[in-house]
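Progress report, Aim 2. The chain analyzed during this reporting quarter is listed below.
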Amino acid sequence: MSAVSLSVLIVTYNAGRDIATCLELLASSWIDRPYEVILVDNASTDGTPERVAKAFPWVRVIAERSNHGFAGGNAVALEHAHGEAILLLNPDAFLRDPEALTGLLAHLDAHPDVGAVGPRLTFPDGTHQVGDAGYEPRPLSILVHAAGLSGRLGRRGLYLASRQARGTGALDVDWICGACLLLRRSAIAAIGGLHSPMFLYGEDVDWGCRLRDAGWRVAYLPGIAVLHLQGGSGGTRSPRWLDGLATIYSLRNAGRRLSSPAFFSAPLRLGFTLRALAYGFAARLRGQPDLARKAEDMRRFASHLRSLRL
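Predicted structure tokens for the chain:
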């Protein structure tokens, strides 16, 4: 099968501290086909579009006067894209492995029934970043995730657990994180484009579930790793991701049993509270500040869920 052309879409918002590294690593990647890079800036105030245009003249920069959000920004970029393969790449997602993109493209080329493919995302220390792929938000997957049982006894939780993200074989999932997501243009067309009811957070879950509805497979490749700073252009560990997830849960489960807001929030709130206690105890026992930060994150997420309304 002949290789398809590639369009790389990057959406920025005050991403000046990350975008240069992102583009430099993209430029040094081994890409075996023609490609273009389209950057849509969502009305940054830090001079991102001007600096990119000056330092990277091979990037097409589209400076918007308003913030369209993640999905909206990518929809704007898609209007100008010519490739048959579409890579969504966050400014804080770094292709440190020059063969990473080639591997993703090769999988898409070899599997015509795959509409989207993505890598294992990692933190700077190389550990797996939970939240890079997973399954449709349904009552059972929410319960499995809240109980910490993802990947145990074949259970599918909301997110792939680190134990599931080992090995090199491709895994069929329902969605992949939009930080580094390679899509087939025909698959995007099948779901009506890259629009989404979410402004920020949850769009990737929405797209993946709709791709599965349309008959496309979504493939996760744990053998390919991409560094993701997570929140480099949108703040650190914000609980707002729960708002997007709640919206998706409401949309995907409308009219079904156990689809109430309380069933979504209560198991997760309990799970976060228990994890906060466990992390806090471990932080005091081991004297590790990173565990204390995790405990604070869990407490913040649990608190956010108390006021959540779908």
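Residues 232-236 have pLDDT under 50 and may be disordered. Residues 261-286 form the longest helix (26 residues). These observations will guide the mutagenesis work planned for the next reporting period.
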